[in-house]
Amino acid sequence: MAFSLTFRLMLTGGVTAACTASLYSASTKPEAEPVFTAEQITFFEKNVRPVLAENCYSCHEGHKAKSGLMLNSRAGVMRGTDYKKVIIPGDPENSVLIKAIRHAAGAEPMPAKKPQLAANQIEALVQWVKMGAPWPKEAAGDHQHASWEDHWAFQKVAKPAVPVVANPKLKPANPLDAFVAAKLEKAGLDFAPQTDRAILGRRLYVTLTGLPPSFEELQAFVKDPSPDAPAKLIDDLLNSPHYGERWGRYWLDVARYSDTEGYQVGGKDYRFPYAFTYRDWVVDSLNADMPYDEFLKHQIAADRIAGADAGSKNLAALGFLTVGDTFISNKDLQTDDRIDVLTRGTLGLTVTCARCHDHKFDPIPTKDYYAIYGVFSSSEIPEEFPVIGKASSEVEYAAYRGEVSKVEEKMTVFRKEVFDDMRKADRMREYLAFAQQAVKEDINGEAFRGKAGQLKLRDRVASRWREFVKRHTATSKPHPVMMAWKEFSTLPKEGFEQASAGVKDKLTKEGSATNAVIRNELAKRPAPKSMDEVLGLYADVFVTCLTGKEPDNADWQAVRSVLLEPQSPMAVPVDQVDQFFTRKDTETMTRFRNEIKKIELSSPGAPPRAMVMNDKEKPNDVRIFIRGNQGRPGEVAPRGFLTFLGGQKFSKGSGREELANAIASRDNPLTARVMVNRVWLQHFGSPLVSQTSDFGVQTPAPVQLDLLNWLSASFMEQGWSLKNLHRVILNSRTWQQSAVSTPDKDLKDADNTLLSRQSRQRLDYESMRDAMIDVTGTLNPAKMGGRPVALNAADVNSRRSLYLIVDRYNQATVPAMFDFANPDTHSPQRYNTTVPQQALFLMNSPFMRDQSGKLAAKLPQEGSTIDSQTITALYRKVLQREPKLEEVELAQRFVNDAMDLQDKPPFLWKYGAGKPQRDASGKITGYEFIPFATYNGTKSRKWWSMSKDMPDKQWSYTQWAEGGGHPGSQHATVLRWTSPFDGTIRISGRLDRDNPNGNGIRGLIISNKQGILVNDLIAPKSEKNMEVASLAVTRGEVIDFVVDSENGDTNSDSFDWRPAIYGVDEVNGKTTLLTKSDEDFNDASHWPIKRPRPQNPLSQLVQVLLMSNEFQFVD
């Protein structure tokens, strides 16, 4: 146990020390310029800057800054007004700006002379201040910088000459090394020695597949005498299907992959049934070494690429654009998100910063943003995605179609019910009457919708009828069909009956222009007494027309032409009736759609589909939204590419195909550089270019610019092959060198920008989890692809982390804890954190305990001893090496300590009968403890007694259960606790005899060293707190909790007593709960039934190795 405790204290202590050091340094050093994460900057650009630009800049920008407050720069925000600060970073509740936009009492409401900001806008500003007011890094002075034309990243990729290195110690293995060696030579440094074969082998396996090698695989590599063994292993691993799984996950970070849409309303199931087809396409494409330019083109315009058909698996690539957050169906935010993931992901440009204004630093005008916006607004996501594969079997497909058809039939029936309801005669009268009233009384907006709801009418149907009435009655020359309606509607409500006869005569007389159908219907009926009767007449005529039973003559055709004119609600066919749905109707349809989605998610017969995007029939350019506000349209922005990259205008469909070609062009200076930099990041832990998704003018040229250019040019020359790029990097001295540094290198190359050594890297979440389930034998690596696996699925630990569900709305805690990419937005790279929760997970989580136990059960072991054979097998499995002699000895000591702890459970309670002991006068002085012999248990109750018989012939009802018990006629029942320490305790617990019958019970607390501490009679139907406020105890001192019958009468003597023992701090008197008798009630194995059993000692040793740096890091 000593080793285990020391290890855990070291681990948690390191975290604590780091936190303490951080706090100390923060309080003693001058305030540094804040550093914000890429996610925080993205939040600002997408949610905060647009609000400031639209609502604040008109008064608080540049020379227009009222009260001296400038809100167009962080410096201006932090400075505040001429009189006071307006924000306190991290404290929105006390920030003047937040109080102003909330219109808080005593604050000047802002924005001035404008409506209050929307709730979501206010919340965005609150979160921004809470984050510390993140803002993109600003250039010094007035942001003047060198012309963008000279910026390194905007220059066409040209392949530089390979340097010649004179120093023989720096002999390069390939041209990559020559560029590195040239800078090392200039700095007076050398490569680190090549790392040993065992470290190199593990590094290659983890780097390329995300899985560790087996001991046997690593030994085969170590013992391979051929000098090209590393190159052969690299080729083998690049050909492994697990390569695509490992490197596919990196791209999914870029693509903000998720299996869910994000937050939704109205009860909508927010899961994507087919996002997995995109994930699997990425894996398959990387395994096939699809050229990177094609890889990009498919993800932007697979539906437009020549040769693509409705069933092409490459259509799944469009998930790059469609698996993002749907923002509760907000098209504007969806398009912004697509522009962001496209431009930052492929070009390393923050184009969305130009949404509200020209880019602050880069040559990207707002017009360019809307030129690309037009491309996506000219595209649409279809109602039904195309099938791109077959179901697992015809039988299962038929079952799937049967289930879906049943739901579709319910949807059809529901639409028909709504459709028919609008056409019933009584409902028609109600709609027409309300439409007439709304026109007469000018009822609009919320009042109109509210009144329609009161009348149980669908407001959108009623709205169409209202417009129908306006068209046909607000004209001096109404249609003959509507002439009677027009005439009668002019009559006042009072006196209507008296005047209507004359109107009727006028409309029905010989030669009247009134439509004959209406005229005849009027003639057959008495003069209407109210307008409602007129509308009833029209309802009857209209319904007759809708049934198709009317004569087919010119007069009825005229009625039909008016009733079914395009703007009429009656012209809408049954399959388009959704447009009239109320919220309740929509919720009903949502439930049906959720049923179908559930079937698609779970049925093995559901064929895979591609989440495509298609061109609209009529593509269109959009106008610039001034300050990002759709309500303020500016000039038209023709669809096209970024102006500074040529500004090509698009004319083929939406323009996505042309956009894809422009991005994946060899003439584009950014595309290859951005991807090479992303690959380099994963191989070395740090990128060549510091900002992996921002190659704009604010990002300085990398130290190894020539190397980046050479790799980028070679990448394109070699057909954009990612596998060839890997080969160049992995076969280099630069990559294969040791991670060990020297004092000279620590001084001259502290950040390793000169690449004088390899960088030690911690396993990311997926590699850590996958390695654990791999070495413990739980993983089934052959099972690849398919629907996402729920985190609580029975087989979850047999699948690689890549296949676990990614839920952007309800993100899993553990992956996030280990820096998993946030699927809400494009993730440039992962930033390693060290937080206490990581150590707690590794030490205490059920996952770690379970995996450790699984491996422990598979290790060879004779009897209960852990010999060197067991420990050797464990080291081979977990660390892929043989243990050293001292490691075997240390492991054996650790296991022995853990076994001792298992044999001595803390706070052990015992249960027994008590035989009274009396003095010469007959007074009870104590009880002889006789342990119970039998543990009894059912689902509902657990108890200890002398036998299973109740009552027992000798011991009567004597027993102790989880929360109490029953004394016998001759023996008390006793609960015993033995102190494991010297110290002060407090005892508390209510003794309750609830039954009103009998003569009561006697409760005692007795110390074997201090005598009777408490002795009370508990009368029928009463209770008492049996408390000892403070008691000094010594190790081994016994405390008995005794319940005896009063004078041998055991009638109704069942009781409830749950003693609790608290430790008392002798300095401040504070108490800490040590144990409660009911919560720590023991079973026959003498372990508390409500506490987890102690981990197997060998399992604990497995867990220690899984937590070790050697397992968690790659050298």
TrEMBL record:
It holds the Pfam family PSCyt1. Residues 27-133 form the Cytochrome c domain. The keyword Heme applies. Residues 1-17 form the signal peptide. The keyword Lipid metabolism does not apply. PANTHER family: CYCLOINULO-OLIGOSACCHARIDE FRUCTANOTRANSFERASE-RELATED, F-BOX DOMAIN-CONTAINING PROTEIN. Keywords: Heme, Iron, Metal-binding, Signal. This is Cytochrome c. GO terms for molecular function: electron transfer activity; heme binding; metal ion binding. It comes from Roseimicrobium gellanilyticum.
